[in-house]
Amino acid sequence: MREIQLTVNREPYKVAVNPNESLLHVIRERLGLKGTKCGCNVGECGACTVLIDGKPVRSCLTLAVAARDKEITTIEGLADGEELHPLQKAFIEYGAVQCGFCTPGFIMSAKALLDEKLDPTEDEIKEAIEGNLCRCTGYNKIVEAIRATAQSSTRREAK
Fold first, then answer.
1. Cβ-based neighbour number of residue 104 at 10 Å
2. Do 112 and 128 meet the contact criterion of CB atoms below 8 Å apart?
3. CA-CA distance, 119 to 37, in Å (whole number)?
4. Is pLDDT above 80 for 123?
5. Which domains does the chain have, with CATH numbers?
């Protein structure tokens, strides 16, 4: 075991980890943040997507020790207290949430895209979420929710 410092959702944590322990396991089991999901555990489904220094990564494939001294953001870190992030609101409003298992991964991938590109095209949205799988929906509502968030953000920026 080795003690490392992780910064998750702007909060510092000292955690003892095994050198081969995944960031996903540490986030869920050591820090108790259950929003990040374990789907396939081999990096195929995207349910475990978190942001590390603003970039989407599969936390099931990332060693916790590799994330020290970096800024990690999980789905829990998007809301501002009780106020949901605009992407979270849009996913609800547009019915982009079915069973909800894959939703955190989609939202984190979308967040990274919208942080990088204010007004992405539909093709850019589809490319950004192509590593996220959903067994419940046809993806159209997910793309619509992301597009609506981008458009409302663009309008706010223009003011």
1. 25
2. yes
3. 28
4. yes
5. 2-77 (3.10.20.30), 86-158 (1.10.150.120)
- What is the spatial distance between Cα 66 and Cα 111, in angstroms, rounded to a whole number? 22
For residue 158, pLDDT over 70 is answered with: no
pLDDT at 154: 64
> pTM to 2 decimals?
0.94
Could you write out the DSSP letters of every residue in the chain? -EEEEEEETTEEEEEEE-TT-BHHHIIIIIS--TTS--SSSSSSS-TTEEEETTEEEETTTSBGGGGTTSEEE-GGGTSBTTB--HHHHHHHHTT--SSSSSHHHHHHHHHHHHHH-SS--HHHHHHHTTT---SS--SHHHHHHHHHHHHHHHHHHH-
Q: What angle do CA 42, 32, 149 make, to 5 degrees?
A: 70
Check residue 98 and give its pLDDT: 87
**Does residue 159 have a pLDDT over 50?**
no
